């Protein structure tokens, strides 16, 4: 596999097995420099294993990966000099203050004392943590700890930042704060590889997305391209009573001219509709429900979501739970420096 100058990350044929379980099955990936690539897929699909190999925390059994111009297996030290890594949980010392955490990461990354202090202050300001710099990290909110963790991963201004489910467990306000920080990083030229199960997160942040299932990429493109794989607009009706599902489906089938999809758990009926016909279809469905004496708690015309993409491509939604267990990765070294390969 040759290197391409405008690719910050490229992988070809990555294979990784844990006993009888194949976590990666000839996975290919290409991430243009200065963009956000989202890796999407159910738990156990291979997303984290891919990140661990690209970040030199694990070795692939086969295949090749090039990160920031360096071979991840043959030049792991050079790769670690160019990357940052933020895992699913904030890896900060809760006893140390925010400033002390960043100074520590900077010193462990090889910066001198004075340079480390200046770098810490720059990062505190960049992530809106200056006012809390003197407080122990254990007293930070979840969103503040995550921002501090992101700041630590940028100690050496990495060319590539790996974010493995960076907003897991955060409330919506904290999640928005992390999203703003990520957008600022990309605006400054950093390439981001993001794994996430929050479909809204991928929709908001990623320039392109790769859907992974059973260790390989099964679809790739922009959010709109992926959504187009499951069709266009749809009329969506949520009925008040479960018994109304079947007659509501009959109304949608008659008005939209196609067989609707029903979700008994959510009491939802959906049918695809052409964009040019959506207003007429919506009006017809409302009239049909009213004529049949059916009560709806929600009705509208909606664009496909990434959850629809998950369901269409994998037969599962993004919220499905993990299957086979995967061994824990080696503990990462300080930000900007991976663990020994």
UniProtKB/TrEMBL annotation:
Residues 9-239 form the ABC transporter domain. PROSITE patterns: ABC_TRANSPORTER_1 (PS00211), ABC_TRANSPORTER_2 (PS50893). Keywords: Antibiotic resistance, ATP-binding, Cell membrane, Membrane, Nucleotide-binding, Translocase, Transport. InterPro entries: AAA+_ATPase, ABC_transporter-like_ATP-bd, ABC_transporter-like_CS, ABC_transporter_ATP-binding, DrrA, P-loop_NTPase. PANTHER family: ABC TRANSPORTER ATP-BINDING PROTEIN (PTHR42711), DOXORUBICIN RESISTANCE ATP-BINDING PROTEIN DRRA (PTHR42711:SF19). GO terms for biological process: daunorubicin transport; doxorubicin transport; response to antibiotic. It is found in: Cell membrane. GO terms for molecular function: ATP binding; ATP hydrolysis activity. Residues 318-341 are annotated as: Disordered. GO terms for cellular component: plasma membrane. It is a peripheral membrane protein. This is ATP-binding cassette domain-containing protein. It comes from Streptomonospora mangrovi. Gene3D superfamilies: P-loop containing nucleotide triphosphate hydrolases (3.40.50.300).
């Amino acid at each position: 596999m040759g290197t391409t100058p405008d690719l910050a990350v490229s992988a070809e044929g990555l294979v990784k097995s844990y006993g009888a379980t194949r976590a990666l099955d000839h996975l290919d990936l290409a991430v243009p420099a200065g963009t956000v690539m989202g890796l999407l897929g159910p738990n156990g699909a291979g997303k984290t294993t891919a990140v661990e190999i690209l970040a030199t925390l694990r070795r692939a059994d086969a295949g090749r990966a090039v990160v920031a111009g360096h071979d991840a297996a043959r030049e792991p030290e050079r790769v670690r000099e160019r990357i940052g890594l933020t895992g699913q949980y904030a890896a900060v010392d809760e006893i140390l203050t925010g400033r002390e955490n960043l100074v520590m990461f900077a010193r462990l990354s090889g910066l001198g004392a004075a340079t480390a202090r200046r770098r810490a202050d720059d990062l505190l300001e960049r992530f809106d943590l200056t006012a809390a710099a003197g407080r122990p990290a254990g007293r930070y909110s979840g969103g503040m700890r995550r921002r501090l963790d992101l700041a630590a991963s940028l100690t050496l201004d990495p060319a590539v930042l790996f974010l493995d489910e960076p907003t897991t467990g955060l409330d919506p306000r904290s999640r928005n704060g992390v999203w703003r920080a990520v957008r600022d990083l990309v605006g400054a030229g950093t390439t981001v590889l993001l794994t996430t199960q929050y479909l809204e997160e991928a929709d908001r942040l990623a320039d392109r997305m790769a859907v992974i299932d059973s260790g390989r990429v099964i679809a790739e493109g922009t959010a709109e391209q992926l959504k187009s794989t499951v069709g266009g607009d749809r009329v969506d009706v949520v009925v008040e009573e479960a018994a109304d599902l079947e007659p509501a489906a009959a109304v949608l089938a008659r008005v939209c001219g196609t067989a609707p999809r029903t979700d008994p758990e959510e009491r939802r009926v959906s049918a695809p509709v052409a964009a040019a016909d959506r207003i007429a279809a919506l009006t017809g469905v409302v009239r049909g429900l009213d004529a049949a004496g059916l009560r709806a708690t929600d009705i509208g015309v909606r664009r496909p979501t990434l959850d629809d993409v998950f369901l269409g491509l994998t037969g599962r939604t993004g919220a499905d739970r993990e299957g086979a267990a995967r061994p824990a990765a080696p503990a990462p070294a300080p930000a900007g420096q991976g663990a020994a390969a």
